[in-house]
Amino acid sequence: MRRIVLLFAVLAAAACSHKAPLIGISGSYASEGVGATTLNTNYSQAISKAGGVPVVIPTLNSREEADAVLAVLDGIVFSGGEDLDPSLYGEAVLNETVFVDSVRDVSDVFLAQAALASKKPILAICRGEQLMNVVLGGSLWQDLAEQMPDNVGHGGTTHKILAEPGSLLAELYGTDSIEVNSTHHQAVKDVAPGLKVTARSGDGIVEAYEGDNLIAVQFHPEKLVRAGDDKWLEIFKTFIARCR
Predict the structure, then answer these.
(1) CA dihedral 130, 134, 137, 139 (to 10 degrees)
(2) CB 180 within 8 A of CB 207
(3) Per-residue pLDDT tens digits for 51-62
(4) CATH class in words for 2-138+205-243
């Protein structure tokens, strides 16, 4: 842990010298063969383009490690990836489509708890949106294809979402009807206390919510930025501004 914290401290000093916030991004854990931290570079590139200094957070083993890491960050992004263990919200695994990475679950829960306690800005994307909802006391649809067979198609397509008036998305994009990408088979079911749902798809699925120091979206703005649609950089710029 000391090596991790030392590295983050060095990066924090470098970020301060450039007056850019140091932003941690949660990584996945590749358990096949030798364990390794992995992360799609779309996240780090979006953060960098928005004015932050990105650093990938490896899987951690304790709340103490998570608190130490959060202490040197200005904000944190919870990235997409594997399904969350249904036991975290009091359910059994529904079927064989639910893929759980217990190493990452443990780490991300510690990181989420530490981030909430730190009151530093959080941007939660896809799995990240689901994670924060679960940690705060909500639950998930485990398999939309089975549990909501008439959904608009969330497993690898684009569709419109309806943003609430006055929400961050509505203010950023000047409209309540927004086209987004969609690559998930789970979603928020019961919304945790204290969270405000700010966008839904036509089938009622939660596509965005806001909370104290928290922006959460079910879609992937980092992929849209990578594809050249720079209007989606505004989400990251807003997040970075909160981290300054």
Answers:
(1) 70
(2) yes
(3) 999 999 999 999
(4) alpha beta
